[in-house]
Amino acid sequence: MTELLAPEQVMAARRCSSCPKMCRSACPTQAVTGNERHQPWGHARQVVAAERRGDAGFVDPELVDGVYACATCSACTPPCHVDGVETPLLTWAARAAVHRAGATPPIGLEAVRQAQAGNVPAAEGAQWTDPSGLLDELRTLATPGAELLLFPGCGALGRRPQAVLSAATALSALGVAFDLPEQHRCCGMVARTFGDEAAATEMRDAVLAAAEGRELVVQSPSCSYWLGAEPLAATLARALQGREPTARTATVTYHDPCYLARHQRIRDEPRQALAAAGYQVEELRRHGDTTQCSGRGGGLPLTHPDIAAGYLQLLVDDIAAAGADRVVTGCASCATALHNAGVAAEELSEAIAANLEAEP
After folding, report:
1. Partners of residue 231 on adjacent β-strands
2. Are 266 and 231 in contact (CB under 8 A)?
């Protein structure tokens, strides 16, 4: 019998499955489906049962469905107080076991193939595009050989190209010289999402090697997390630090993307950047640790589009309850999803670039 799950993750699953469900009320999938199998305790019970069966356990359709009915948003992490349990790590480990057993959903395998080919997701569904034209446009604002290397990431390049152009515009307006990679490479987060650990590591190492020791600044939050690089939100906040802000021209409500707020704890920086750029920043009821995920991560829009739509509706409801007229988020994929749902939303770089361009 092949060992598909590392011993520490087997122990984490056993501890999680024995827990009195402290994270249950925090799980967006549970809130959307009402299915106990779709929250961390349910995932852990399935993983424990699968591990006892070996390869056959990790090809079980119910287990595969369960481990992919998750955006890896980490909403379950703050309320969890069980030693040795990091629920997103357990989810990724279970997906890797599914991959090793040969049961990765076909749509996930195709996503990895597209990412390895240098394509980016062009829409919510299984559509992919070549970003080289956009990168050529960005190079007109870049400084060849600059120490800072801007890495937009697949989500930003594909789903919201205007946010990538705004990032370049904002950095230029702030006097921050930047260069771009010679070619687009996926950081490997797509491969990690679908359990291909070898491909994920190889792709990440290729991006880091191509940076040639320069400072890597990353726009897409999940990419900055996987690369271990500085998020663009932090770079913009530092560039704006000490700058005399213009008069408060508008009020915006900030939405914390889960891969910034929970996975990387980047919370103050986006708000500081918006304030320095002349905005009055207001909050949603759920922010920081309790922020509502938009459902764009974890491959959820590909494997479970209905659940992803439910995540987004929970966020739209929060925005409506706050009476927010204009929403800014640190994630390009979140901004596009909100826009498509009828919310006046923009990515952080867009809001900052707009105010900097408006200055004399």
Report:
1. 218
2. yes
Return the structure tokens found at 303.
Answer: 């494997």
- Number of other CB atoms surrounding residue 166 within 10 Å: 25
User: Which secondary-structure segment (H or E) carries 345?
Assistant: strand 345-347
Q: Which residue has the tokens 């826009």?
A: 339
Per-residue pLDDT of the chain (360 residues; tens, 9 = 90+): 456 888 888 888 888 888 777 777 889 999 999 888 888 888 888 888 888 887 788 899 999 999 999 999 999 888 887 777 788 888 999 999 999 999 999 999 999 999 999 999 986 666 899 999 999 999 999 999 999 999 999 999 999 999 999 999 999 999 999 999 988 999 999 999 999 999 999 999 999 999 988 999 999 999 999 999 999 999 999 999 877 766 667 899 999 999 999 999 999 999 999 999 999 999 999 999 999 999 999 999 999 999 999 999 999 999 999 999 999 999 999 999 999 999 999 999 999 999 886 554
Domain boundaries, the chain: 7-103, 118-236, 245-358
CA distance linking residue 45 with residue 63, whole number of Å? 10
Is 245-358 assigned to CATH 3.10.129?
Answer: no
Read off the tokens for 106: 């076909």
